[in-house]
Amino acid sequence: WAKAEGRGRWAVYDPERSAADIARSALAAGLPAALDRGEFVVHYQPIVSLLDGSMIAVEALVRWAHPELGLVGPDRFIGLAEETGLIVRLGEWVLRQACRDARAWHREFPGAKLVVSVNLAARQADDPAIVDTVASALSRTGLPAELLQLELTESAVMGTAGEPLRSLYRLADLGVRLAIDDFGTGYSNLVYLRRLPIHCLKLAGPFVEGIRGAGDDPPPDHRDERIVDALVRLAHALELSVTAEAVETGEQAERLRALRCDTGQGRWFGPPAPADQITARLRGETTE
Ligand code: C2E
Ligand code: MG
Ligand code: MG
Ligand code: MG
């Protein structure tokens, strides 16, 4: 028998369990206390207009400032938080923090109309209480609804019942923007896409990876380029805007602009960074 960290829960000792599994459950066991101790931080990554280079939004990306492991990325704990259900509380905390920061930016730089884009896990989106959670985050922080975007994956949109979530209509009625994250990598149900109140498609990294300039090495992958071209046309035909994720080079940004993508996000435009770095960037952009 082995006692799981902290909680007084007991797990059966299994010699087949790998060290990685054990590390994983230790990390999971530490999540609730970490939230109570305030060890999570939200970083923000610029989402930039491909037309004029201005920052029009930022995506909120959570990190865990772990006392021993340092800054731990969400890929290592969001899945665990979803499994344990903690994602509901953690997600609400991220939403509040993001709305507070966005409200402060809006106060200092009202002309920037900077949108904050917050990821919603399937489990959060599937809970009808999400509408009240979002409404109260907006009213408590005073952030105008149109400055909040919520990102859902294709599978989250479809919900556990296999039908598009009713909550999406109620969220859209609040006035927030809805985006489909990692579009094209999940279960893209185009039938529902035409009826849902979606505002933006975020094209997943793998498609953007193949987009390069003609002289680049490796050369562009024309199939990726045709997929992006087709998805942008589809999005625009449905009056949705398109954000390309994982833009890593200037050539990619240029090519994506030629393909009529509206906005880009990725290392080329700036990595995820603490809120004060976004403030500094807004200061630079608005005094130019
Ligand atoms: P995502 O929503 O698709 O976020 C984009 C990811 O791409 C981020 O990873 C970002 O750091 C990364 N990225 C930024 N620039 C580049 C680039 O130039 N190239 C490439 N290849 N990637 C780039 P990150 O921060 O590790 O987050 C991973 C995922 O964790 C996110 O993917 C999102 O699904 C999830 N996540 C992050 N924060 C939250 C949250 O607060 N709630 C929920 N439910 N999920 C979150
Ligand atoms: Mg996202
Ligand atoms: Mg994404
Ligand atoms: Mg993702």
Our estimate of the beta-strand percent is: 15-25%
What portion of residues is helical? 40-55%
Rounded to the nearest angstrom, the radius of gyration is 20 Å
What is the makeup of the main sheet?
8 strands, mixed, barrel
- Biggest β-sheet: strands ordered side by side in the sheet: 3-4-6-7-8-9-10-11
Q: Give the integer mean of the pLDDT values.
A: 91
Helix run count: 12
- Described by the principal axes of the CA atoms, the overall outline is globular
Category by helix and strand content: alpha/beta
What small-molecule ligands were found?
ligand C2E, magnesium ion
SSE string, helices as H and strands as E: EEHEEEHHEHHEHHEHEHHEHEH
Distance between the termini: 64 Å
- Give the low-pLDDT segments: none
Secondary structure layout:
Elements: E1 2-3, E2 10-11, H1 19-37, E3 40-49, E4 55-66, E5 70-72, H2 78-84, H3 87-108, E6 115-119, H4 122-125, H5 130-141, E7 148-153, H6 154-158, H7 167-174, E8 177-183, H8 190-193, E9 200-203, H9 205-209, H10 222-237, E10 241-244, H11 250-258, E11 263-264, H12 275-287
Parallel strand pairs: 4-6, 6-7, 7-8, 8-9, 9-10, 10-11
Antiparallel strand pairs: 1-2, 3-4, 3-11, 4-5
The chain binds ligand C2E and magnesium ion (MG) (3 copies).
